[in-house]
């Protein structure tokens, strides 16, 4: 089980100069209950402290710490060597265990580990909201940006994580525009707003009557006030409570016994009274018919957030009147969530290409470094051999000009010979580094670059 | 006929087809409909070119009639004006998704007018020779009625969209695609604006026709079925607007009346002249 949960990164060569690898270690809402996530959750100061401790771990060149209510993760660039990687895992688990005051051995079974391409894919998914409780939720993007900004401000990121996060943010934005993962309401309040838009369009100039100034009503009012509703009436059995809520939003408080006189003035009527506290529906079909007549048949929308319902369901049968209960809105939300899930599979396909490109860059980066190292070695050899050969030529008593010409010719010859000889190996290395995990390591060993 | 002349109506029809498909794709994928708009705009301008060439005599119709008396040509003009109105209002009102209805209407009338190239009208009663003022009057009459028909056709499309959306909302089938369509309130207001404007254009057109007939002692009102039918259609639209204003019959009810009114209007093109002799071809 230990080896199932923790991926042993011990395939590295015995090279002293290690290749940095991407590693993500952490927990999410999928693996851990909220109690564990709460214990592992890190404040900003604790994140800074963890970043500093990670920097002290042998082999860790770059690190970012992400801590939200649904996940706690560390994203690191770790030098791959026999010594550094197992040590890194032990240290990270110990750090988490120390912070949460939990047994290290137990925590090892809960933490997930992703490396290389899987780590890149995981991060891209997280940034796009594909790994969130509600697919496509936008908050994680901002949280990830903050975590990255914090690490960067502490100089804990470098070339690899800078590029990784930059690409993750870019891909997330792109996927959100190309798919519907972040479209349509996935909460009852936002579904109600979208419903109002479907009926009335722009909310500016619209009037709203809120019946029930409790928690549900206050939340609904906040959403609609933010959406730009013009005129608001607040009704509550306790007038003072209606007055208090109305004052907070610059609205008008109405008495519970006389509010129906103002019904014709409301385009949107929200019922948010705990239905158990009232005997029967607040509004009957007759009162809505009267209001409709006074409005000369203008559209009117009733949203019933009460359970049991506040309004007579027959209201929906009237012309130019629409009634949606909280169950209807939840069913809309469920449809929207299903729509987002369908879009998520398309988003995964789009992201897969971006992941492939980034992993290719990582692999090429190693290959490029190996090629640079070999070129440097060959240049040194070239200079040494040319010097040896020139020493022999001194016996020929050449003039300075002739000596320089010979030197130039030998230099050009050696350069051309090296370039022609190494072109094929370099090209092959770049190609093979995409498919063969140890191609670069083998190349370095072959030419004794380490 | 020069081969290039074939290109114009065919290209226009193909662009209308492309615009329809692009509008539908934009709705399904929730994307901006810029390509659809350009396609519709280009199709519209080619349609205008086609109509100008028709009126200049570059195209021949069976049983050749003067342009204003050619039903295929009139239908084509009506659809062209309809598409033009839509293009003007599309971005201003945010009614992009209606393009998926308007583009096929433009195409449909173009295709219909192609088949009606073989249309054999009953020859109308000959109008007595007229003065310049009379000719202008007939011209204004035709223009007003054609514009009215275009507006009623547009209102028909808007009414269909309103009826469908209203039913979906009423049955709580408010799904993921809904935020891509215009609101019910916008559709209702657009519908009534089109009906009002169309009604007045038709009233002016019929009024001028009536004044002309009175001036020429033609006694059309008592014997011409086309004229009687037109009065009926005008009265129907007047009733729609009256009922809306008086009894608050908005939204779906007005939409259904507008649909019925347009069907009556369409029927008048094809059947009125069959009843008995008329000064109108259609």
Structure description:
The complex is a heterodimer of chains A (450) and B (282). Chain A contains 15 helices and 10 strands. A 6-stranded parallel β-sheet of chain A has the order 7-6-5-8-9-10. Chain A has a 4-stranded antiparallel β-sheet with strand order 2-3-1-4, with helices on both faces. In chain A, helix 8 (159-178) runs antiparallel to helix 13, helix 9 (188-200) packs across helix 13 (326-393) and helix 13 (326-393) packs antiparallel against helix 14 (400-435). With 450 residues, chain A is an alpha/beta fold. The longest helix of chain A has 68 residues, at 326-393. The radius of gyration of chain A is 33 Å and the shape is elongated. Helix content of chain B is 75%, strand content 0%. Chain B has helices at residues 3-29, 34-55, 71-93, 99-115, 132-170, 184-215, 220-223, 225-247, 252-275. The radius of gyration of chain B is 20 Å and the shape is flat. The chains are: A alpha/beta (450), B mainly alpha (282). At the A-B interface, helix 9 and helix 13 of A face helix 5 and helix 6 of B.
Strand and helix layout:
The complex is a heterodimer of chains A (450) and B (282).
Chain A: H1 2-5, E1 19-28, H2 34-40, H3 44-56, E2 60-67, E3 71-80, H4 84-100, H5 104-108, E4 112-115, H6 116-128, H7 139-153, H8 159-178, H9 188-200, E5 207-211, H10 215-226, E6 231-236, H11 239-248, E7 252-255, E8 268-271, H12 285-294, E9 300-304, E10 321-325, H13 326-393, H14 400-435, H15 439-446
Parallel strand pairs in A: 5-6, 5-8, 6-7, 8-9, 9-10
Antiparallel strand pairs in A: 1-3, 1-4, 2-3
Helix pairs in contact in A: 6-8, 6-13, 7-8, 8-13, 9-13, 13-14
Chain B: H1 3-29, H2 34-55, H3 71-93, H4 99-115, H5 132-170, H6 184-215, H7 220-223, H8 225-247, H9 252-275
Helix pairs in contact in B: 1-2, 1-4, 2-3, 3-4, 3-5, 5-6, 5-9, 6-8, 6-9, 8-9
């Amino acid at each position: 089980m230990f080896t199932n949960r923790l991926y042993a990164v011990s395939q590295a060569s015995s090279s002293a100069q290690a290749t940095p690898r991407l590693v993500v270690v952490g927990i999410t809402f999928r693996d851990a209950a909220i109690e564990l996530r709460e214990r592992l959750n890190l404040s900003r100061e604790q994140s800074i402290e963890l970043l500093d401790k990670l920097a002290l771990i042998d082999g860790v060149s770059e690190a970012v710490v992400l801590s939200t209510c649904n996940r706690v993760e560390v994203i690191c660039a770790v030098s791959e060597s026999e010594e550094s990687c197992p040590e890194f895992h032990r240290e990270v688990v110990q750090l988490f265990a120390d912070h949460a005051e939990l047994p290290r051995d137990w925590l090892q079974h809960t933490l997930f580990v992703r490396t290389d391409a899987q780590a890149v894919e995981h991060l891209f998914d997280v940034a796009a909201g594909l790994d969130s409780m509600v697919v496509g939720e936008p908050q994680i993007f901002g949280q990830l940006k903050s975590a990255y900004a914090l690490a960067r401000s502490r100089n804990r990121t470098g070339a690899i994580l800078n590029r990784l996060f930059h690409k993750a943010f870019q891909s997330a934005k792109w996927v959100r525009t190309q798919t519907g993962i972040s479209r349509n309401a996935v909460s009852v309040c936002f579904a109600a707003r979208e419903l109002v838009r479907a009926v009335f369009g722009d909310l500016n100039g619209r009037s709203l009557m809120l019946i029930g100034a409790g928690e549900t009503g206050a939340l609904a009012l906040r959403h609609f006030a933010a959406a730009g509703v013009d005129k608001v009436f607040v009704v509550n059995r306790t007038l003072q409570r209606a007055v208090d809520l109305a004052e907070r939003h610059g609205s008008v408080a109405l008495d519970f016994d006389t509010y129906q006189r103002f019904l014709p003035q409301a385009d949107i009527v929200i019922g948010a009274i705990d239905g158990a506290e009232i005997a029967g529906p607040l509004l009957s079909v007759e009162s809505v018919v009267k209001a409709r007549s006074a409005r000369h048949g203008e559209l009117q929308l009733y949203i019933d957030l009460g359970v049991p319902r506040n309004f007579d369901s027959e209201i929906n049968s009237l012309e130019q009147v629409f009634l949606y209960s909280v169950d209807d809105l939840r069913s809309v939300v469920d449809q929207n969530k299903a729509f987002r899930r369908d879009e998520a599979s398309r988003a995964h396909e789009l992201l897969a290409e971006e992941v492939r490109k980034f992993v290719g860059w990582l692999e090429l980066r190693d290959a490029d470094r190996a090629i640079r190292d070999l070129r440097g070695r060959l240049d040194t050899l070239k200079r040494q051999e040319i010097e040896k050969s020139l020493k022999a030529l001194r016996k020929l008593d050449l003039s300075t000009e002739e000596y320089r010409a010979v030197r130039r010719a030998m230099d050009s010859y050696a350069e051309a010979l090296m370039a022609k000889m190494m072109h094929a190996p370099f090209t092959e290395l770049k190609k093979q580094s995409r498919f063969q995990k140890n191609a670069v390591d083998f190349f370095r060993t072959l030419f004794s670059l380490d | 006929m020069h081969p290039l002349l074939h290109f114009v109506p065919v290209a226009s029809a193909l662009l209308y087809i492309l615009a329809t498909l692009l509008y539908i794709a934009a709705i399904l994928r929730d994307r901006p409909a810029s390509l659809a708009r350009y396609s519709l705009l280009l199709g519209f301008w080619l349609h205008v070119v086609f109509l100008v060439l028709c009126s200049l005599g570059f195209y021949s119709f069976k049983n050749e009639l003067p342009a204003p008396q050619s039903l295929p040509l009139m239908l084509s003009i009506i659809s062209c004006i309809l598409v033009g109105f839509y293009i003007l209002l599309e971005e201003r009102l945010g009614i992009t998704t209606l393009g998926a209805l308007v583009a096929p209407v433009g195409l449909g009338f173009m295709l219909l007018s192609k088949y009606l190239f073989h249309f054999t009208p009953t020859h109308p009663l000959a109008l007595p020779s007229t003065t310049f003022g009379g000719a202008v009057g007939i011209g204004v009459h035709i223009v007003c009625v054609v514009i009215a028909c275009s507006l009623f056709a547009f209102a028909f499309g808007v009414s269909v969209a309103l009826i469908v959306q209203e039913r979906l909302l009423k049955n709580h089938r408010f799904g993921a695609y809904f935020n891509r369509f215009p609101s019910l309130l916008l559709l209702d207001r657009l519908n009534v604006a089109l009906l009002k404007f169309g009604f007045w254009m038709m009233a002016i057109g019929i009024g001028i026709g009536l004044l002309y007939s009175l001036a020429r002692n033609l006694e059309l009102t008592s014997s011409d079925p086309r004229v009687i039918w037109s009065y009926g259609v005008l009265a129907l639209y007047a009733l729609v607007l009256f009922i809306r204003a008086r009894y608050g019959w908005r939204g779906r009810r007005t939409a259904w009346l507008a649909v019925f009114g347009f069907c009556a209007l369409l029927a008048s093109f094809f059947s009125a002249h069959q009843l008995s002799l008329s000064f109108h071809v259609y």
